[in-house]
C-alpha cells in the first residue's frame, strides 16, 4: 500500500498486468454455476433453453455498461463494496459484505461437489458402488434414517439450488448498478426514484426465485442413483401400465416391468416418449374391460376375460431410481430408448408375464389365426382370447387382434398388436406374423 501524492487516499500498487486481469476476469465468469444451470435448463426446457442465454446476454449488457460507468466515476479499489457504501450507507454495506462472505464460503463446497460430479463421467468408480458412496455407506444409511422427506430433497438438489442462487447474483447486482447509473444521469428525485425502483426489482426477483425454488423442491423427484440398465441386451422386456403419477410436473404411467426371464419389477414409472399414448391406450382397454368382462363369447359360450396392454422394449431398459412423496420408484427413461426398440401389444392380463417370457424363448413362432380357425370354438380362455382380441380392435383405433405365439411345447398365447406405437422392423415378425397357425398340423 502507498499514499497518493495527490491526497490521503490509500491506493493499491498496480502489480497486475493486462494478462493477469484478463485471466482473473475469465476465471470469475466461468464456474460451476453456469454449468449446473445449463443442465437444469436443458432438463426442464430442452432446446428452448437457448433463449435463456439470449435473455442473460441482454441483462449482462446493462450490467457491463453500469460497471463501466461506475468504474470511471469511482476509480478506487473495492468495487461493489464501495458502491453500496456510497449509495445505501454503512448498515446496507455491512449486510452486503456478509452476503459476499457467505457466498464465497459456500462456493467452496459447491465447487467440491462439481469436481466430483464432473470427474465421475471419466472415473467410473468415483461415485459408483465401489467409490465414494461405498466408503461412506454406513454413515449414509444412518443419515437417511434420521432425515425427513424435505431434507432428502434438499440434500440432493442442494448443489443445483446453490449454483442457481449464485448465478442470480449478477442480475441482482446489475439492477443496483443500473440504478446507481441512472441516479447519476438523471439526478434529483427522478434519479433517486429510478435507483430505488431498480433495486426493489432486483430484491423482488431474487426473493421470488428463492421462494419458487423452495416451493417447487417438494414436487421434484429424488434421483439418488445413476442410470442403470435392466434386462438382456438381446432380449425383450415388457412394461405393464396400471395407474398414473405426477412425476416431474407431468402425468406418467406407472406399473410393472417384466424382465426377459419373467422377473417382475414393481413400482415402475414410464417417463418420456409415448407416455401419453400409453395412458390413453390403457384407459381405453380398462373401459372395454368394464364393458365386456363377465359377458359371454357368442362363439364358444365362455365369459370374456380382462385384457392388458404391454409395451415391449428390445434390449436393455434404462432405469433410474427416484423417490416421490417418500415412495421409491424405478423410472424408465424412455427418451434414452431408440423408438424402433418399442412396440405395443395386448393379451390376457394373467398371461402378460408368460407372453414376455415366450417372446424371449428360442423356438417361439409368431403366427396368425385365420377367421375360420377351429381355435375360436375352443371352450377355454385361449379360444375366448382369440375372439376377444378381435373384438377390442373394433373399439380401439390402431388395435389389431388374431395373432398367437406358438411356443416349442405347442402351447399358444393369443395376443393383439397396438400400432399406436409406431412399428419397426425389429418387431415385424410379431406384428405381421409370417406363418398361419393350424392346430391340426
Task: Give an overview in words.
This protein has 441 residues and is of the alpha+beta class. It folds into two domains: 20-220, no CATH class; 230-436, no CATH class. 49% of the residues lie in helices and 20% in strands. Strands 3, 4, 5, 6, 7, 8, 9, 10, 11, 12, 13, 14 and 15 form a 13-stranded mixed β-sheet that branches. It has a two-stranded antiparallel sheet with strand order 1-2. A hairpin with a 2-residue loop joins β5 and β6 (250-258). α2 packs across α7, α3 (50-73) crosses α7 and α4 (80-119) runs antiparallel to α7 (149-186). The longest helix has 40 residues, at 80-119. It is elongated. It starts with a strand and ends in a 5-residue tail after the last strand. The model is unreliable at 1-8, 128-139, 141-149 and 214-225 (pLDDT under 50).
Features:
441 residues; alpha+beta; two-stranded antiparallel sheet; 12 helices; 15 strands; 49% helix; disordered N terminus
Q: What is the number of independent domains?
A: 2
Mean pLDDT: 77
Q: Total strand count, please?
A: 15
Percentage of residues in helical conformation: 40-55%
Which geometry do the CA atoms define? Answer: elongated
Q: Any idea what the radius of gyration is?
A: 32 Å
Quaternary state of the chains? single chain
Number of helices: 12
Given helix and strand content, the structural type is alpha+beta
Terminal-residue CA separation: 102 Å
Unreliable parts = 1-8, 128-139, 141-149, 214-225
Instruction: Give, in order, the helices and strands.
Output: EEHHHHHHHHEEEEEHEEEEHEHEEHE
Share of residues in strands: 15-25%
Q: Which sheet architecture does the biggest sheet show?
A: 13 strands, mixed
Amino acid at each position: 500500500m502507498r499514499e497518493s501524492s495527490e491526497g490521503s487516499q490509500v491506493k493499491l500498487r498496480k502489480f497486475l498486468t493486462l494478462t493477469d486481469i484478463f485471466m482473473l476476469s475469465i476465471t470469475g465468469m466461468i464456474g460451476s454455476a453456469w454449468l449446473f444451470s445449463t443442465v437444469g435448463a436443458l432438463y426442464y426446457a430442452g432446446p428452448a433453453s437457448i433463449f435463456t442465454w439470449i435473455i442473460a446476454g441482454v441483462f449482462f449488457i446493462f450490467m457491463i455498461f453500469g460497471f463501466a460507468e461506475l468504474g470511471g466515476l469511482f476509480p478506487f479499489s473495492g468495487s461493489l463494496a464501495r458502491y453500496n457504501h456510497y449509495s445505501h450507507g454503512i448498515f446496507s454495506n455491512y449486510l452486503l459484505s456478509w452476503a459476499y462472505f457467505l457466498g464465497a464460503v459456500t462456493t467452496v463446497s459447491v465447487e467440491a461437489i462439481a469436481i466430483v460430479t464432473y470427474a465421475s463421467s471419466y472415473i467410473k468408480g468415483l461415485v459408483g458402488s465401489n467409490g465414494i458412496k461405498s466408503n461412506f455407506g454406513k454413515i449414509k444409511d444412518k443419515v437417511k434414517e434420521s432425515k425427513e422427506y424435505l431434507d432428502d430433497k434438499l440434500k440432493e438438489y442442494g448443489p443445483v439450488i446453490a449454483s442457481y442462487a449464485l448465478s442470480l447474483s449478477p442480475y441482482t447486482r446489475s439492477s443496483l448498478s443500473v440504478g446507481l447509473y441512472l441516479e447519476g444521469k438523471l439526478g434529483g428525485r427522478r434519479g433517486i426514484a429510478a435507483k430505488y425502483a431498480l433495486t426493489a426489482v432486483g430484491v423482488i426477483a431474487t426473493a421470488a426465485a428463492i421462494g419458487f425454488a423452495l416451493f417447487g423442491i417438494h414436487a421434484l423427484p429424488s434421483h439418488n442413483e445413476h442410470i442403470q440398465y435392466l434386462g438382456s441386451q438381446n432380449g425383450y422386456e415388457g412394461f405393464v401400465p396400471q395407474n398414473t403419477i405426477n412425476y416431474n410436473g407431468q402425468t406418467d404411467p406407472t406399473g410393472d416391468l417384466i424382465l426377459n426371464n419373467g422377473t417382475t419389477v414393481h413400482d415402475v414409472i414410464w417417463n418420456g416418449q409415448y407416455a401419453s399414448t400409453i395412458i390413453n391406450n390403457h384407459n381405453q382397454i380398462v373401459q372395454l374391460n368394464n364393458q365386456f368382462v363377465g359377458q359371454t363369447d357368442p362363439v364358444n359360450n365362455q365369459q370374456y376375460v380382462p385384457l392388458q396392454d404391454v409395451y415391449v422394449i428390445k434390449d436393455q431398459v434404462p432405469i433410474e431410481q427416484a423417490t416421490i412423496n417418500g415412495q421409491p420408484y424405478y423410472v424408465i427413461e424412455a427418451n434414452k430408448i431408440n423408438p424402433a426398440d418399442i412396440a405395443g401389444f395386448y393379451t390376457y392380463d394373467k398371461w402378460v408375464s408368460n407372453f414376455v417370457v415366450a417372446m424371449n424363448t428360442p423356438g417361439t413362432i409368431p403366427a396368425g389365426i385365420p377367421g375360420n380357425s377351429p381355435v375360436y370354438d375352443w371352450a377355454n380362455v385361449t379360444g375366448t382370447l382369440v375372439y376377444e382380441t378381435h373384438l377390442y380392435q373394433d373399439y380401439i383405433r390402431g388395435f389389431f387382434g388374431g395373432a398367437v405365439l406358438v411356443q416349442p411345447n405347442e402351447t399358444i398365447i393369443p395376443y393383439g398388436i397396438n400400432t399406436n406405437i409406431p412399428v419397426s422392423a425389429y418387431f415385424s415378425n410379431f406384428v405381421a406374423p409370417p406363418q398361419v397357425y393350424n392346430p391340426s398340423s
